[in-house]
């Protein structure tokens, strides 16, 4: 954030609305709100008592099936590398986890804080996923209740065909940040003194008939996969769909 008059970066200051004064960092203490607007002050020595002992090891407390770790459990991910002299143990654990399809649930200390992690075998090494603690994430049924709607078999078949037509191997190119690229392009244009040109976007049409919308989507996605296979015979996708209906 800049001051628009002089274009210098602003500084964030701590302000106390009760005393109506700006504060220095040395004037601040940490506190815990145990009731509305009621706080208990936490001194550094109080926090030290709750800190876990420092350790360079990661304790594996259990192994679970890979499929039981859900995306909502994941917070951050790190690469795990072996210390000198422990390479063989590292490779043995990696191979064993690959063969069993298991994930190791771990506890460890980092920067004075205890974490729960999931160690997972990747292609060429181990990865450590930091997991949220219980109570730090919500279950789906806590935020959304699936409505009861009638879905016809033809509608489901069309939806499956659309998904099939758009199915391809995962590539890291899919993770490109298009918004960032557009923003950098705007920044480049401004630096070079060019006129900013923003591409127009079409407003999506309002969906009225679900079946018709699915058919239109199927026609569009079929262009990405013009050939479908029925047994060992390669045929055009439209003919394959006709045979499937027959």
Describe this structure in words.
By secondary structure, the chain is α+β, with helices and mostly antiparallel strands. Among the domains are: 59-131, Ku70, Chain: A, Domain 2 (Beta Barrel), CATH 2.40.290.10; 153-164 and 208-246. The chain is built from seven helices and eleven strands. The strands form four sheets. Strands 5-7-8-9-6 form a five-stranded antiparallel sheet. A two-stranded antiparallel ribbon has the order 1-2. Strand 10 (227-230) and strand 11 (233-236) form a beta hairpin. The termini are far apart.
How do the strands and helices of this protein lay out in sequence?
Elements: E1 14-16, E2 21-23, E3 30-35, E4 38-42, H1 44-50, E5 59-65, E6 74-80, H2 87-100, E7 102-110, E8 113-121, E9 126-131, H3 140-143, H4 153-165, H5 178-191, H6 210-222, E10 227-230, E11 233-236, H7 237-245
Antiparallel strand pairs: 1-2, 3-4, 5-7, 6-9, 7-8, 8-9, 10-11
Helix pairs in contact: 4-6
What is the structure about, briefly put?
The protein has 246 residues and is an alpha+beta fold.
**Strand order of the biggest β-sheet:** 5-7-8-9-6
Tell me, what is the CATH class of the domain at 59-131?
Mainly Beta
Summing up helix and strand content along with how strands pair, one would put the structural category as: alpha+beta
Q: Give helix % range.
A: 25-40%
Number of helices: 7
The CATH architecture of the domain at 59-131 can be given as: Beta Barrel
Report strand %: 25-35%
Radius of gyration (Å): 28 Å
> What kind of sheet is the major sheet?
5 strands, antiparallel
Secondary-structure element order, N to C: EEEEHEEHEEEHHHHEEH
């Amino acid at each position: 954030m800049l001051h628009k008059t002089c274009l210098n970066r602003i500084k964030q200051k701590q302000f106390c609305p009760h005393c109506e004064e700006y504060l220095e960092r040395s004037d601040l203490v940490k506190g815990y709100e145990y009731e509305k607007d009621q706080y208990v002050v936490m001194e550094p020595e109080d926090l030290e008592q709750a800190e876990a002992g420092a350790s360079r090891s990661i304790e594996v407390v259990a192994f679970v099936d890979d499929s039981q770790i859900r995306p909502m459990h994941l917070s951050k991910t790190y690469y795990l590398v072996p210390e000198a002299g422990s390479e063989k143990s590292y490779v043995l654990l990696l191979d064993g986890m690959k063969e069993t399809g298991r994930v190791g649930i771990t506890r460890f200390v980092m920067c004075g804080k205890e974490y729960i992690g999931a160690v997972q075998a990747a292609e060429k090494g181990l990865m450590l996923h930091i997991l949220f603690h219980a109570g730090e994430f919500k279950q789906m049924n806590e935020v959304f209740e699936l409505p009861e709607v009638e879905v016809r078999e033809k509608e489901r078949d069309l939806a499956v065909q659309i998904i099939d037509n758009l199915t391809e191997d995962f590539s890291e190119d899919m993770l490109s940040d298009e918004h960032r690229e557009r923003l950098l392009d705007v920044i480049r244009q401004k630096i070079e003194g060019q006129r900013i040109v923003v591409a127009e976007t079409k407003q999506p049409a309002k969906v009225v008939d679900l079946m018709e919308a699915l058919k239109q989507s199927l026609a569009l996605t079929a262009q990405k996969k013009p050939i479908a296979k029925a047994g060992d015979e390669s045929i055009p996708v439209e003919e394959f769909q006709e045979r499937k209906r027959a």
